[in-house]
Write a structure and sequence with these properties.
The protein is of the alpha+beta class. The protein contains 26 helices and 22 strands.
């Protein structure tokens, strides 16, 4: 905050091209003089915040400005005598931050807290005084933005400040709105800092603040922060991009003419719409240049069409695609499927007869407000909350809290130290897309919000927490799959848990876990169980075979005297299956189920068919295949389940695990063929077994 305040005049070349069109720029010297004069009257607003009041009333015509006046009086008096490093009175900083938020449409409580956001940190004002004068809500927001003391935390002060701020944001998103505006003003005025400190602040802004602005949907702040960081961290690329924009400024811009054509098309169609040309900001131009190489005139901006209703958006799209040539690959519908940061618009591109391709964004005016201001445009999310807003120590339920923020708040509690929190936070914020999957566990259903690229392992820890240590598999869209499988947006996932409480994650789970919550939980379990983390050999192993005492022969009888009868291992027929027999080499008769694929092959080979019937005895031999997820004691549990049914194991083969799945093949002697369905059910009930079938 105060440590990052410098003179805007001292920035290299002052960089006026970075200023956003239409955004009021503060005359800090004029504000400084007004601030030093102090309040003029108790009955009228101080001149220093007249511009804030004007911007605020543009969005909230009926706003009560008396709270802003009182907040300004306290902020000005408490900061009086403090100067920024550039020489302006310090009060100009909270005024500038408050103006940024007022232009975005923030409500009065946010602006009040913004005026006071540095008082507790840099002056003698206490939180108790803020609470007494302005209420618990303003107190909570001011406390959330206040840095932790370096005296108490040392080198960990910055990570712990962000941790504190994020926890407060989980209760009230307006905390982060003020922090973003605070950082934007400090980045605008960063020029008098030493180059190494400029770079350090710019890197934190790039790694943490810009992703947070993106996730909260505050594009107006995000784009300007990106340009300011770009100029500091990549000066050569910045200068090249500036030269491209300057060269384009001297050429004929085709976008205004294309916008006129769009206006004519929509007017003829009877669609009321506002059509604008939106120049791209510096980073956007740089990205387009890297993607397309040589830039054309229409690449330096986009056409924005604003309408009144959602249905009008699709009407505009239809007219554009009818009257111009659409570029199908560029069409995206973010109205039907909004981005995870509340963003909604239709994106398309059209080719015009002159040979240019223009990108077009279509949205309603309300969508435009949310696209620019994000959560700031939502106002006070607690205005109609049922919880008691007076208790600022209790966590309040925010109906607008996005999934990524909930995940972040969950895993930060488990981060063992500030360094881990700081590094994992940056990695989490680097994930720029989010997916929604539907969960189904047989008892309840719902949705999970996960970063793009998340696996079934991430879904397990998101749903069950540390109980996911016992996860043994998953069904995705009804099909069994390994835990390492990546999920896609809209998938339905059912997670299978072992009943064995001692089960734990495998060491290779860390390779497939993307979310911090999963990685931290797995890492802690592996540290507590070091023997389990030892890598298993990957050398090929022969199947494990267990052979028991041989039982009596099959009870099939062939109508061929003295012939040896064998039950086919491919289909293991049992009474009362319909069967067919065929004479094979050596004169033996092999018995197959009538629907076995081998029956057709035998007939095609011209094998002699022999009638077969079952003896009156009820015992039989059958081969079953059990497919399961690997876990300790699985073979013992399966064998015990078989024994409880009074069945004799003739032989058993266990194949080596493949993708955490194991295949068991059992040849069994049943005392009564009618007990086969009950036996198969008992085997399926063994934890980890997901299918049992006849061979």
């Amino acid at each position: 905050m105060s440590a990052e305040a410098t003179n805007p005049e001292a920035r290299p070349e002052a960089r006026p091209e970075l200023r956003r069109r239409g955004r009021t720029r503060l005359d800090l010297r004029r504000l400084g003089r007004a601030a030093l004069l102090g309040p003029t009257s108790r009955d009228r607003l101080p001149d220093a915040i007249g511009h804030v009041a004007e911007a605020h009333r543009a969005h909230h015509p009926d706003a009560d400005l008396s709270l802003l006046r009182r907040a300004y009086v306290l902020a000005e008096s408490s900061h009086r005598g403090q100067m920024r490093k550039s020489g302006e009175p310090y009060i100009t900083h909270p005024l500038a931050v408050t103006l940024i938020l007022a232009e975005l449409g923030a409500e009065t409580t946010t602006l009040t807290a913004s005026l006071l956001h540095d008082t507790v940190e840099d002056t003698e004002v206490t939180l108790d005084q803020v609470r007494e004068e302005f209420g618990d809500e303003v107190c909570f927001i001011v406390d959330g933005v206040t840095k932790v003391e370096k005296i108490d935390y040392g080198a960990a002060a910055e990570p712990e400040t962000f941790r504190k701020m994020l926890v407060a944001t989980g209760n009230d998103v307006r905390v982060m709105s003020i922090k973003l505006a605070d950082r934007l003003h400090n980045m605008r005025t960063l020029g008098v800092m030493r180059p190494e400190k400029q770079a350090r602040i710019a890197k934190v802004t790039r790694d943490v603040l810009i992703p947070l602005a993106e996730r909260l949907g505050v594009q107006a702040l995000k784009t300007e922060l990106e340009d300011l960081v770009f100029a500091i961290l990549h000066p050569e690329e910045y200068e090249h991009t500036r030269a491209l924009i300057a060269a384009h400024a001297g050429e004929r811009d085709p976008l205004p003419a294309i916008a006129d054509s769009v206006r004519t098309v929509l007017r003829d169609a009877g669609i009321a719409a506002e059509v604008q040309v939106r120049p791209r900001h510096f980073v956007s131009v740089h990205r387009i240049a890297r993607k397309r190489g040589e830039l054309r005139g229409s690449d330096f901006g986009r056409i924005l069409v604003l309408v009144g209703e959602n249905a009008d958006c699709y009407a505009v799209l239809g007219e554009l695609h009818t009257c111009f040539t659409p570029v199908v690959s560029e069409f995206k519908d973010f109205i039907a499927a909004p981005k995870f940061n509340l963003y909604q618009s239709l994106h398309t591109a059209v080719a015009v007869p002159e040979g240019y391709v223009a990108e077009v964004i279509v949205r309603t005016r309300q969508m435009h407000r949310v696209a620019e201001a994000g959560v700031v445009a939502l106002g006070n999310p607690y205005a109609t909350a049922a919880s008691d807003p007076a208790d600022c120590d209790e966590e309040r339920v925010d109906p607008t809290r996005p999934g990524w923020l909930s995940r972040l708040l969950d895993w930060q509690r488990s981060a063992p130290d500030p360094d881990t929190f700081w590094s994992v936070l940056r990695a989490e914020l680097a994930q720029d897309r989010e997916i929604t999957v539907f969960r189904e566990d047989g008892r309840s259903s719902g949705t999970l919000s996960l970063p793009a690229g998340a696996s079934c392992i991430d879904a397990a820890y998101a749903q069950y927490g540390e109980a996911a240590h016992g996860c043994i598999g998953a069904r995705v869209n009804g099909r069994l799959t390994s835990l390492a499988s990546r999920l896609s947006d809209g998938d339905t996932v059912q997670l299978l848990l072992a009943q064995d409480a001692s089960s734990g994650p495998a060491a290779d789970w860390l390779e497939h876990a993307r979310t911090p919550a999963a990685r931290i939980a797995i890492g802690r379990w592996l540290e507590a169980h070091p023997d389990s983390a030892k890598p298993t050999t990957t050398a090929a192993r022969a199947p494990l075979s267990v052979v028991g005492a041989r039982g009596r022969g099959g009870n099939a009888v062939a109508d061929l005297p003295d012939a040896t009868v064998r039950l086919a291992g491919c289909c293991t027929p049992v009474p009362p299956d319909a069967v067919a027999g065929f004479v094979v080499r050596g004169g033996a008769v092999t018995v197959h189920r009538i629907h076995c694929a081998s029956v057709a092959q035998m007939r095609a080979l011209g094998r002699t068919s022999v009638a077969v019937h079952w003896r009156a005895t009820t015992d039989c031999r059958v081969t079953l295949v059990a497919e399961s997820f690997g876990r300790p004691h699985l073979l013992a549990d399966l064998t015990e389940a078989i024994a409880r049914q009074g069945v004799e194991v003739v032989s058993a083969t266990v194949e080596p695990p493949v993708e955490q799945k194991v295949r068991h093949t059992y040849t069994l002697q049943l005392p009564d063929a009618t007990g086969l369905p009950a036996l198969m059910r008992a085997m399926r009930d063994v934890p980890g077994v997901y299918d049992v079938s006849r061979a």
